[in-house]
Amino acid sequence: MDTRPASKAGSWYEKTPAKLMKTLDNYLADVPETVDGSSLPIPGARVIIAPHAGYAYSGPNAAWAYSCLDLSKAKRVFILGPSHTYGLSGCAVTTFSKWATPFGDFTVDRDVLERVKEAGGMGDVPPENDVAEHSLEMHLPYLYKRCQQTFESPEDFPTIVPIIVGSLSRSREKDVGRVLLSYLKDEENAFIISSDFCHWGTRFGYAVYSPNGDIQRLTTLHDYSPKPSGPPIYETIRLLDEAAMDAVKSGSHDAFVENLRHTGNTVCGRHPIGVAMAALELYAKELNEEDKSRFKIVKYDRSSEVVWPDDSSVSYVSAYAVL
After folding, report:
1. Count of alpha carbons within 13 angstroms of residue 208, beta-carbon side
2. Are the CB atoms for 259 and 265 separated by under 8 Å?
3. What InterPro entries would the database entry show (predicted)?
4. What pTM value is reported for the model?
5. Whether residue 192 has pLDDT greater than 90
6. CB distance 73 to 108 below 8 Å
7. Sheet holding 3-4: strands in order across?
8. Residue 28, domain extent
9. What is the DSSP letter of 225?
């Protein structure tokens, strides 16, 4: 089997092309015509962070990132996401040559993928885990839609470079960022960084609470804990996510790593984001422009507003960086 099937079609998003297209059209139509004072897509916005939950949950949020994404010069699109199906130390690449969507297939750039794999000391994603994983697949229908809006024919669509980013130390994130730097600098490459933000709830092993709005002092709740008498739980979640988003916007890879180390915020794509931030920071240093290539957050949502300790929610963020 040389083509990875669209395994989440029919469950995480619509399988019928016409219905899926209508859904994406509706989500994209809700994004304003301008973002940060720019018409869309934002010129030079070749890197985005977008969520990967079922479209009913995160699809409207992801529309903001995809509306910003500039594919006008793209020949290939790197897609970096975390592993939810097996423990992975380091990074691994797909073994498939094509990835299916309900709209049509994307071709994997095997030559580039092999070069990145060798330079980064990466392994192969086991095919069964590749098919089961959702963090990369959830971006392909949106990417296909944006390619249709950008290019005259599917024959002109960019190839894809799917990479699963597993558990990495701070220094290893910088190493992988260095491997990707030359591709980041090339205007023919775009990057999709796949991540949800705070996963709050005992089912995620993360049920912290700040009774006074100070995330430096977090307590832990349990399913049987009483409803907090102070600010609602969702306010704590917002504070945690805002701190993480501030770290992302800072342009400092170390600041982002330190924020998550301190709060324990369950940002599932922390390592893909870390790798991207490390690469962007190296690029800014080469240009001698500290403010260059920083992420800008354009949309923040939560799947629900948690009030009771036995409830749960997942947060979604859309961001872009201009290169």
Report:
1. 22
2. yes
3. MEMO1_fam
4. 0.97
5. yes
6. no
7. 3-4, 98-101, 104-107
8. 3-322
9. S
The helix or strand, by DSSP H or E, that contains position 53, with its residue range, turns out to be none
Q: Which residues make Cβ contacts (< 8 Å) with residue 35, sequence separation at least 6?
A: 42, 64, 67, 68, 298
The neighbouring-strand residues paired with 100 are 105
CATH number of the domain that residue 54 is part of:
3.40.830.10
Q: Return phi, psi of residue 165, to 5°.
A: -105, 110
Residue 260: half-sphere exposure toward Cβ, Cα within 13 Å = 22
Question: Using an 8 Å Cβ cutoff, are 138 and 14 in contact?
Answer: no
Q: Per-residue pLDDT tens for 281-306?
A: 999 999 988 777 899 999 999 999 99
Residues 45-68: b if buried by 16+ CB within 10 A, e if exposed:
bbbbbbbbbebebbbbbbbbbbbb
CA distance linking residue 129 with residue 294, whole number of Å:
32
**Which is nearest to 65 in space by CA: 301, 277, 287, 260?**
301
pLDDT at position 190 over 80: yes
| Orientation of helix 55-68 relative to helix 17-29, angle to 10° | 60
Length reported for the chain: 323
The domain total for the chain is 1
Cβ 111 vs Cβ 73: under 8 Å: no
The mean pLDDT of 139-147, rounded to a whole number, is 98
The CA distance from 151 to 141, in Å, is 15
Angle between helix 170-185 and helix 270-287 axes, rounded to 10 deg: 60
Contact indicator for 160, 107 with CB cutoff of 8 Å? yes
Q: Cα 134 from chain centroid?
A: 12
Contact predicate 101/7, CB 8 Å: no
Q: Which secondary-structure segment (H or E) carries 314?
A: strand 313-322
Question: Is the pLDDT confidence value at 111 over 90?
Answer: yes
Determine if the peptide bond prior to 41 is cis (ω within 30°): yes
Contact (Cβ atoms closer than 8 angstroms) between residue 235 and residue 208: no
What's residue 292's pLDDT?
77
307 burial level (CB within 10 Å; 0-12, 13-18, 19+): exposed
Neighbouring C-beta atoms of residue 261, cutoff 10 Å: 11
